[in-house]
Amino acid sequence: MTTKISFQQTSCAFLVNGADFLAVDRVDLDIADREVVTVVGPSGCGKSTLLNMAAGLVNPTGGQVYVDGVPVREPGPERGVIFQQYALFPWLTVRSNVEFGLTLQRGVSRAERRRRAQHFIDLVGLTDFADALPKTLSGGMRQRCAIARAYAVNPSILLMDEPFGALDALTRVQMQDQLLRAWSAEQRTIMFITHDVDEAVYLANRVVVMAARPGRIKEIIPVELPYPRTEAHRLSPEFTEIRNRVWHAVYHQALEEDRAT
Ligand SMILES: Nc1ncnc2c1ncn2[C@@H]1O[C@H](COP(=O)(O)OP(=O)(O)OP(=O)(O)O)[C@@H](O)[C@H]1O
């Protein structure tokens, strides 16, 4: 299998009160082309820092991150980043927001822009709101619009940092299914951070469990459930068993940390 994203002895230290604070310590992780990898771990264990290094928003202070074998130095159009906080242009409609990223791409005709935007607006369930302004939408709808915009640019990699964190439980589950549908249709590589263990297991091919101080990989748990995933998988004994294993890994290392402080 081809490696898409490769963290090789990747570290990141921040200067805090005049001293180096090691947020990520020598992470080795290969994410295969078209794989979905989720990352869980206690608050502050370096999940976002790891993702931001793959995005090219934060530079490693040790080691390197490679995408398609090339060291990451800056953000690039092949990597779509989605954060928990939706960032939409308030003066543009849903459709124009989704089309915006496409206007930056050369060689995409106006008709093609329209078609692609409409496809992803439909996919995230905003068909009836395509001409609405963001201020008239709920928080969940705005986030779905931000997600449609990231999908529309058609990046080969999606880097997602708690993208569904602010959504209600039902919308969240719907968005997970939409993400998997979009993923299987377009075959992207996904790195996805979440605090929700069920979400981590439902989406992933592998779940990376991180530990804090310093931020590092504690365990990688494979999820041997077939795609496409459905409600039946969520309710299966296999799912429960994997979920318990991930939860155990996160919970026990949080306890260990508490004891250490
Ligand atoms: N720019 C920065 N300057 C200084 N310290 C930082 C900076 N960014 C992150 N940190 C520190 O690095 C550590 C890891 O932060 P990071 O946001 O990556 O963790 P996280 O696992 O994503 O946390 P959460 O789950 O709470 O979002 C934290 O202790 C944080 O305070």
From TrEMBL:
One of its GO terms (molecular function) is ATP binding. InterPro entries: AAA+_ATPase, ABC_transporter-like_ATP-bd, ABC_transporter_ATP-bind, P-loop_NTPase. Pfam families: ABC_tran (PF00005). Keywords: ATP-binding, Nucleotide-binding, Transport. The keyword Transport applies. Residues 5-239 form the ABC transporter domain. It comes from the Bacteria. SMART domains: AAA. The keyword Protein biosynthesis does not apply. This is ABC transporter ATP-binding protein.
